[in-house]
Design brief:
Elements: H1 6-19, E1 24-26, H2 36-41, H3 48-57, E2 65-67, H4 77-83, E3 92-94, H5 101-112, E4 120-122, H6 130-142, E5 148-150, H7 157-170, E6 177-179
Helix pairs in contact: 1-3, 3-4, 4-5, 5-6, 6-7
Length: about 190
């Protein structure tokens, strides 16, 4: 933890893009996302998530492992999720302990349909609810490279549980592991 905030992260990511040799990027336990409100007022204000998304969209992105856990990423999870649709290098992505919510989860699920690099995705305690879980699972069917999905400690509800169970029936555990430890299944989502 270096207390890197959104503005500092954007400068850091620019330097990484120029260097173009870093394969493992750990930006966990920082302040990414704490200035997202400024970006909603001033669209030119760079967010850490937006800067990272730009790097992921780059054809020369060298990153294979990206750890963004334990930050304050909320709205900027959406550009990161969208970038995964075109990224072909990231094999491990850790977004745990951020706040994707359903909107970020849905965009991420849609991007998984186009991603064939991601092998491990950690979404522990990211506020993924039933609808978001359902869309992620639909994307997993298309993302043939994914081997480990961590949904732990999310309120995925009955719909999310049923989606995961249907997926597990189709894919043996040696091909795809889904971790649902601590998930809440009691929530009923009407959408």
């Amino acid at each position: 933890s270096a207390d890197i905030d959104d503005l500092e992260a954007s400068k850091f990511v620019e330097a990484i893009a120029v260097k173009n040799t870093i394969k493992y990027l750990d930006m966990s336990r920082n302040l990414l996302g704490t200035q997202e409100n400024k970006a909603s007022i001033d669209p030119t204000f760079p967010t850490g998530g937006g800067s990272i998304a730009a790097l992921l969209r780059s054809a020369t992105c060298p990153i294979e492992t990206l750890n963004l856990s334990w930050n304050c990423i909320r709205d900027s999870s959406i550009p990161i999720a969208k970038a995964l649709a075109v990224n072909s290098t990231v094999t491990h992505l850790d977004l745990s302990y951020n706040s994707l919510g359903n909107e970020g989860a849905e965009v991420l699920g849609n991007s998984l349909h186009f991603n064939n690099a991601l092998q491990k995705l950690d979404l522990t305690q990211t506020k993924v609810c039933a609808r978001g879980c359902y869309v992620i699972i639909q994307g997993v069917y298309s993302c043939m490279s994914l081997r480990h999905l961590i949904l732990a400690e999310n309120p995925i509800g009955d719909i999310g549980l049923r989606s995961v169970m249907a997926l597990q029936m189709q894919y043996p555990s040696e091909e795809l592991q889904v971790d649902m430890r601590g998930c809440s299944f009691k929530m009923h989502d009407s959408t």
